[in-house]
Design brief:
The chain is an all-alpha fold. It has helices at about 1-25, 30-35, 40-100, 105-120, 125-140, 165, 170-180.
Length: about 300
C-alpha cells in the first residue's frame, strides 16, 4: 500500500515538474513572435522564455526536495515516537508482572521500574499512581467493617510493632514513591483507604487530597507531610508524628489523634467534629477556622478553640 502511494506521488511530482512551468510560463505563440522583425530577437526571446521555465522548474525541484526532507523527518519522528511508546509499554507490562512476584526483591524492582516509567512518560503518571495505590491496599489490608475485619481503632497501640520498612518493605517503598511522585493535572485522588500503615515512614510526603479513610497510621512518622484537603475520616493516627504537617481543610471527622504530635501542624479549616485529640501536643498548631463541636475531644491543656 505504501509502495503504491509512493509511486503515485512520484508520478505526480514528475508531471508537475514537466508541465507546471509550461502552464505558468507558456511558450510564446507565433502571433506574439510575429511582432519581432528580427529572427535573432525572436530566438533570444524564446531562449529567455525557456530560461524562465527552467528557473521555475529548478525552484520546484528544490521545494520538492525540501518537502521530501521534511516528510522523511516527520516519518522518522513518528517511528521514533512509536518505538519509544512501545518500549514504555513493554517496561510497564514487565513492571506489573514483577509486582505480582512472590519474591520481595522482584516486587521492589517492579515498584522502582514503575517510578522510572512515570518520570519518563508524563502521560502514564496517573496510571502508575493508581497502580501503586492498588498495590498498597492489596498488600496492607485493613478491612474495617468486614465481618472478619479488625477492630478499629485497636484497643491499644502496639509499641512493639516494627517499622513498616521491616514489616512490609515493598509497601513502604510504594509509599516512598507515591510521596515523591511528580504531579500530573489528570491524576486521580490517592486512594489508600482501609490500609494497614502502622509505623509507616512518610516524612515530607506529598499526599495532598489523599483518601485515607479508616486506615491505620498509628505511630506513623509523618513530619512536614502534605495532607491538605485529605479524606481522613475515622483514620487512626494515635501517637503519630505529625509535627509541621499540612492538614489544612482536611476531613478529620471521628479521627483518632490521641497522643499525636501536632506541634506546628497546619490545621487551618480542618473538620475536627468527632475527632479525639486527647493528650495530643498542639503547641504552635494553626487551629484557625477549624470545625469542631461537642463531640470533639480536646487535650486538657488545649481547652477547646
Amino acid at each position: 500500500m505504501l509502495g503504491t502511494l509512493g509511486g503515485v506521488a512520484v508520478l505526480i511530482a514528475l508531471a508537475a515538474v514537466v508541465w507546471l512551468p509550461r502552464m505558468v510560463y507558456p511558450p510564446l505563440t507565433s502571433p506574439q513572435l510575429g511582432h519581432m522583425a528580427s529572427a535573432e530577437k525572436r530566438v533570444k526571446l524564446q531562449q529567455a522564455q525557456s530560461q524562465v521555465q527552467n528557473d521555475f522548474r529548478s525552484q520546484l525541484l528544490q521545494a520538492m526536495g525540501g518537502l521530501v526532507v521534511v516528510a522523511g523527518a516527520a516519518v522518522g519522528w513518528q517511528q521514533l515516537r512509536l518505538a519509544r511508546e512501545g518500549q514504555i509499554t513493554e517496561r510497564f507490562t514487565r513492571a506489573i508482572d514483577h509486582l505480582g512476584s512472590e519474591t520481595l526483591d522482584v516486587r521492589l524492582g517492579g515498584i522502582y521500574a514503575l517510578e522510572r516509567v512515570a518520570k519518563n512518560s508524563p502521560d502514564d503518571r496517573p496510571t502508575v499512581t493508581d497502580t501503586l495505590c492498588a498495590f498498597v491496599r492489596e498488600h496492607a489490608r485493613w478491612p474495617v467493617g468486614a465481618p472478619d475485619g479488625p477492630e478499629h481503632p485497636t484497643p491499644t497501640v502496639d509499641r512493639q510493632m516494627p517499622w513498616l520498612t521491616s514489616r512490609a518493605p515493598d509497601v513502604q517503598t510504594a509509599l516512598y514513591v507515591l510521596g515523591r511522585r511528580p504531579g500530573h493535572p489528570q491524576e486521580h485522588t490517592l486512594y489508600l483507604s482501609r490500609a494497614d500503615l502502622r509505623r509507616a515512614q512518610l516524612s515530607r510526603a506529598q499526599l495532598k487530597g489523599a483518601n485515607l479513610r479508616h486506615s491505620n497510621l498509628a505511630r506513623a512518622y509523618m513530619p512536614n507531610s502534605n495532607l491538605e484537603d485529605g479524606q481522613l475520616v475515622n483514620v487512626d493516627l494515635r501517637h503519630a508524628h505529625l509535627r509541621g504537617a499540612g492538614l489544612s481543610h482536611a476531613d478529620l471527622r471521628d479521627a483518632h489523634l490521641e497522643h499525636a504530635d501536632l506541634r506546628q501542624a497546619k490545621l487551618h479549616g480542618a473538620d475536627l467534629r468527632g475527632a479525639n485529640l486527647s493528650d495530643a501536643n498542639l503547641d504552635g498548631a494553626d487551629l484557625t477556622d477549624v470545625r469542631a463541636d461537642d463531640t470533639t475531644t480536646w487535650p486538657d491543656t488545649q481547652g477547646g478553640t
